[in-house]
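RECORD TYPE: inverse folding
INPUT: structure tokens
STRUCTURE:
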């Protein structure tokens, strides 16, 4: 029997490599593509700032256009999730609901509620993995039911599991065609099913920002949607030499244009398929004589994402310190005033404040810039909880992701995963190494733009006369540094040392038993015969894997660590 199906979009806002939507079309006589805009749910479970709201609405508009081109439409229904679903299941005589399987606790609970509603109202529920490379349950099973807590162990499990499933075929207009043939013919062409009635699209259109009372702030350079994401992807993949030699730590944190791919917002919202990207990279690697390898390669970045997804899926209270079994329990300072200064780019350190300004204006910052401001807030200078920084990033980042955001904040605060806690970012010298003229600071902090380069990172060291000439008096037009970095970092280092000594067993949970990972080098001299063809199994043999690596006043930027793309 062919179903009458509601396909629920949550993430996965795309038509390419969408296995759940394809399964819905192949099993149904009619499919209603639905996005339930439950603002109460979204604001209670996620912190979404104005820029991310704009990105989401743009992604929905793009999905609507792409569905229309195939003869269907997207129905955006506002209201409480369960009541909306209950009403429309009955109204449209639905026999099946399909949705992507997700790993966040709130999405798991939502799926459980949909299944309970299905039992009550008599419809089937189908969920398939589409947002990650692997089904995290399979990784957990292969690891004895627990998550692998180090990247090295994680890659070993993947080597047993094999390659990710290949992307499913692209959808076509034929998949949405209405057939008027007999039932016998329809069973032969069961991949074709009817779209919703055209009139529904107008009733359930994508709302405008003004409809949701979202501030019309300056829009981010990143425009949401599958179409934009695919265009950016193709632009990057045309330079196959850049792709093959990409080494994440060698990218520049304060370049005025992204020196990484800038695709992370599209992966986070599901506008791009991570599996499609993985296999496109494999094809390029197969044709390259030499290429970079995980953890610093582009595929390595996808595997870091997968690592955090896997650990988060089976770790209680992953986004919190309390009750989190892998996280050090630290008595962080509670200082609302200092937290506010950090968030609002008023620390008095131009490099830190420029980063936080870019974050607020554009919704994206380079992964090393994220490292710098995270270290400053937590173990470096202010000794404020990583949870507070995670909340700010969740609100402001376009690529905010439950697992990656929390995992990186634990990493950067040395609460888990990262163990070279004596390496602390200098809020002056770190940025100066890659941008000695301070062009990045001049762009995002125009109040400082007239300072000579020798003062741009430390304007408080300029004389009063030089400050007047620059048109910026420190303490009036721009704040003095809120802390003495040397004194604060030395003090915090002793606090962290004491914590790690007292909680040695917890600290060891996420530590790899390998050589010093800071000495890790990308192996570039593999013979052509042994060059990886994108096979995960081979990655563990050819790469020295770090348990956690970050930068500390880098001279060349040759270390590897996780981060946003």
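DESIGNED SEQUENCE:
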């Amino acid at each position: 029997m062919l179903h009458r199906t509601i396909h629920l979009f949550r993430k996965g806002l795309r038509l390419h490599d969408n296995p759940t939507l394809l399964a819905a079309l192949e099993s149904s006589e009619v499919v209603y593509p639905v996005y339930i805009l439950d603002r109460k749910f979204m604001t209670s479970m996620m912190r979404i700032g104005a820029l991310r709201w704009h990105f989401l609405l743009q992604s929905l508009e793009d999905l609507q256009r792409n569905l229309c081109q195939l003869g269907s439409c997207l129905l955006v229904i506002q209201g409480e999730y369960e009541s909306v679903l209950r009403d429309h299941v009955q109204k449209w005589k639905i026999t099946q609901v399909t949705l992507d399987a997700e790993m966040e606790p709130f999405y798991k609970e939502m799926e459980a509620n949909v299944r309970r509603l299905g039992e009550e109202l008599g419809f089937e529920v189908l969920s398939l993995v589409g947002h990650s490379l692997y089904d995290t349950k399979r990784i957990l099973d292969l690891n004895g039911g627990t998550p692998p807590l180090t990247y090295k162990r994680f890659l070993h499990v993947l080597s047993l599991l094999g390659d990710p499933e290949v992307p499913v075929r692209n959808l076509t207009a034929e998949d949405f065609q209405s057939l008027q043939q007999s039932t016998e013919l329809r069973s032969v062409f069961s991949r074709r099913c009817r779209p919703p009635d055209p009139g529904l699209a107008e009733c359930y259109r994508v709302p405008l920002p003004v409809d949701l009372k979202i501030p019309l702030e300056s829009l981010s350079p990143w425009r949401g949607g599958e179409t934009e994401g695919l265009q950016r992807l193709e632009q990057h993949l045309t330079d196959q030499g850049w792709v093959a030699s990409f080494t994440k730590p060698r990218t520049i944190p304060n370049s005025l244009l992204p020196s990484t791919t800038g695709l992370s917002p599209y992966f986070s919202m599901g506008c791009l398929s991570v599996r499609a990207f993985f296999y496109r990279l494999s094809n390029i690697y197969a044709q390259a004589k030499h290429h970079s390898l995980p953890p610093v390669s582009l595929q390595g970045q996808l595997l870091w994402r997968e690592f955090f997804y896997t650990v988060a899926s089976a770790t209680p209270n992953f986004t919190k310190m309390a009750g989190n079994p892998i996280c050090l329990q630290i008595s962080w300072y509670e200082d609302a005033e200092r937290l506010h200064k950090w968030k609002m780019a008023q620390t008095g350190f131009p490099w830190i404040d420029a980063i936080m300004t870019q974050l607020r204006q554009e919704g994206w910052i380079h992964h090393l810039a994220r490292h710098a401001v995270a270290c400053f807030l937590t173990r470096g200078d202010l000794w404020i909880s990583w949870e507070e920084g995670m909340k700010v990033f969740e609100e402001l980042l376009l690529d905010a992701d439950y697992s990656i955001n929390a995992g990186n904040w634990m990493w950067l605060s040395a609460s888990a995963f990262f163990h070279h806690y004596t390496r602390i970012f200098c809020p002056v010298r770190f940025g100066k190494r890659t941008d000695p003229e301070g062009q990045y600071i001049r762009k995002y902090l125009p109040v400082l733009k007239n300072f000579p380069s020798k003062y741009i990172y430390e304007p408080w060291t300029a004389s009063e006369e030089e400050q007047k000439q620059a048109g910026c008096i420190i303490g009036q037009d721009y704040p003095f540094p809120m802390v003495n970095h040397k004194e604060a970092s030395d003090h915090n280092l002793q606090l962290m040392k004491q914590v790690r000594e007292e909680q040695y067993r917890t600290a060891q949970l996420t530590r790899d038993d390998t050589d010093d990972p800071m000495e890790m080098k990308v192996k570039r001299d593999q013979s052509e015969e042994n060059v990886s063809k994108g096979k995960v199994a081979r990655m563990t043999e050819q790469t020295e894997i770090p348990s956690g690596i970050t930068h500390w006043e880098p001279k060349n930027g040759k270390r590897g660590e996780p981060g946003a793309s």
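NOTES: DSSP finds 25 helices and five strands in the chain.
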